[in-house]
Design goal:
Layout (H helix, E strand, L loop, with lengths): L14 H21 L90 E2 L12 H11 L4 H5 L4 E9 L5 E8 L5 H10 L7 E3 L2 E13 L3
Parallel strand pairs: 1-5
Antiparallel strand pairs: 2-3, 2-5, 4-5
């Protein structure tokens, strides 16, 4: 047979009641906890302490650095040794004056400075006509023979059929050398430059003479370019 519980010992029927009572109790405790006020003693932060006196600011006055005044100039004191004498008193140590005539005495050494004048370089005159004209070695025929045997007809002048006379000028110096050669008239195509080249390389001439002395003579020379 199964044992039966007593109706009084059966708590299942009172379970709901105990649950409601517990919830009410917990609610009351929570309300009391929120409404509880705690009063703590707080010490005042304004503690009384000793009074500190703040000293007043003092303004220090600075003085400007002014330069010291210059020292007084020393007084010139007259020496007691200076004595004023009369004009008629003889002075032992008298200064002697020097005359200009004393400097020109024979015993005084005289230095003579000689200034040498350098001779000015005078350019010698170039004559155009003289008593004896300069000449090429062997004469005029040898000169033209030399020219035409040494002159090479420029290729540009050949292609353009350029012919004519080129005039040159130069100076025959006293030793017979050729100087200052230049072109007076050119026909173009390189003919003038070729003639000038050959004239500058000519051998020495016999110089021109005036009153039996060799002089510088200017000489003009025509050179003919002709295509044959």
């Amino acid at each position: 047979m199964e044992a039966k519980k007593s109706p009084k010992a059966d708590l299942e029927s009172k379970k709901t009641l105990f649950l409601e009572v517990g919830l009410v109790f917990a609610l009351v405790v929570a309300l009391l906890a929120f409404n509880w006020k705690s009063y703590e003693k707080k010490e005042s932060t304004f503690a009384q302490g000793p009074v500190v006196e703040i000293p007043e600011e003092t303004i220090i006055q600075t003085q400007e650095n002014t330069p010291p005044p210059p020292p007084p100039e020393p007084e010139v004191q007259m020496s007691e040794d200076i004595q004023i004498v009369e004009d008629d008193v003889e002075i032992e140590h008298e200064l002697k004056t020097i005359n200009a005539d004393d400097l020109t005495k024979p015993d005084a050494p005289v230095v003579k400075v000689e200034i040498k004048e350098e001779p000015e370089e005078v350019e010698e005159t170039i004559f155009l006509v003289v008593e004896e004209q300069p000449s090429f070695p062997g004469g005029e025929d040898k000169m033209f023979e030399y020219l035409y045997s040494n002159i090479k007809y420029p290729q540009v002048a050949k292609e353009n059929n350029i012919t004519g006379k080129v005039f040159l000028t130069f100076v025959v110096e006293k030793d017979g050398s050729i100087a200052g050669a230049k072109i007076l008239r050119d026909i173009g195509g390189g003919c003038g430059q070729e003639a000038l080249r050959v004239v500058k390389n000519m051998p020495k001439w016999s110089p021109g003479k005036q009153r039996g002395k060799p002089v510088r003579v200017q000489f003009n020379l025509p050179v003919v370019f002709d295509l044959q």
